Amino acid sequence: MFSLILVSDYLVGGDRLCAKIQLKMAQIKSWTVSDALWSKIGPLVPARKRPRGRKYQRKPGAGRKPMPARQVFSAIVYVLRTGCQWKALPKEYGSASAVHAHFQRWQREGFF
Question: pTM of the predicted model, to two decimals?
Answer without folding.
Answer: 0.66
